[in-house]
Amino acid sequence: MLVEKFIPKAYSERVEAAKVRHRAYSNIALVKYWGKRDEQIPMNPSISFTLSHSYTETVIEMAPRTDFTSSFQIDFFFDEEPKDNFLPKIETFFTRIRNYIPFLRDYYFVIRSSNSFPHSAGIASSASAMAALAVCLMKIEKLFDPEMTEQFFHEKASFLARLGSGSACRSTYSGVVLWGEHSAVMGSSDLYGIPMEDVHEVFNTYQDTILLIDKGQKPVSSTKGHQLMIGHPYAEARFLQAREHIAALKSILKKGDLEGFMALVESEALALHAMMMTSDPYYLLMRPNTIAAIEKIWYLRASTQKPLCFTLDAGANIHLLYPKAYKADIIPFIERELKPLCQDQEVIYDEVKSEP
Ligand code: DP6
């Protein structure tokens, strides 16, 4: 299998100690990943925008190991505070990737992380967190193997991030990113994300205003949600729809077709939530204000022809998407009509990260 290429042979360099840092940005899916098999293999490909303001910054310090009583020696700090309750997640990640990063067993790792967004904002941080961790580990691996190519570095960073959290493998790149094999995109892979090429300039200017409708803990986690796609009565139709959406979105992105973009992205968001509502057991993550906001967005679009649309992640929050050229028209509408629907009137103004 192709994973073999990510298992290192002997490294050319010896490394005593290292300190690396990486900032990885969150992403919002346009075509959604929902359902997986084996070791983090998606049931359908997905495409996302990487954002500019919502990020995780991680610093890893690596030193010779002093304690051999457990599989790994790791200390983890979040916002400068020791956070032992995060350790099991990191240990699970290290266990999954240890064949690909063999030095994990031989060193002591001190990991310090922080997010640009509040922990309680109801924004999924696993994508940016796992991407930051994966890229840091690749920065260390590059010290062991300085000859490694840029392409290998990026593919393997995304490959490792995927093993931490599926959507994280799209957060190792900026811009528009595809994860999952699709016949319409050469080089696409279930194992790692790749940047989408041939994307119209307008999409590099896209704004994502996140309406924090509900900042609380979700009643059903994404992990559980993915599991409920196994044996779901509409799963096969959904996976097929997502594949068709990838092909359609590829051409929409190339042409700069805003009408096509809005229709496809909203259909994806509602299809994702339809899967939740038809799972066994069924559940609902939208809140009354999610629907109220959607109706206002549709009303504004119909009455002003402004190209704004929404998408949803696996929660109640809304991501409002529109080109930068319309910012001055749309912000007053957000402030007046949508902010009052948000918990603590909180919104986050983010945008696509177009620069690497
Ligand atoms: C609805 O990537 O959080 O945001 O692989 O189990 O960590 P795991 O799941 P995760 O699922 C993301 C689901 C989604 C859609 C998407 O980002 O594509």
TrEMBL record:
Among the Pfam families in the record, one is: MDD_C
Keyword presence, Plastid? no
Mvd1 C-terminal domain: from which residue to which, for each copy? 210-345
InterPro entries in the record: GHMP_kinase_C_sf, Mev_decarb, MVD-like_N, Mvd1_C, Ribosomal_Su5_D2-typ_SF, Ribsml_uS5_D2-typ_fold_subgr
Query: What keywords would UniProt list here?
Result: ATP-binding, Lipid biosynthesis, Lipid metabolism, Lyase, Nucleotide-binding
Give the highest taxon in the source lineage: Bacteria
Q: Which residues form the Diphosphomevalonate decarboxylase-like N-terminal domain?
A: 24-183
* Protein's UniProt name: Diphosphomevalonate decarboxylase
Origin species, per record, is: Capnocytophaga gingivalis
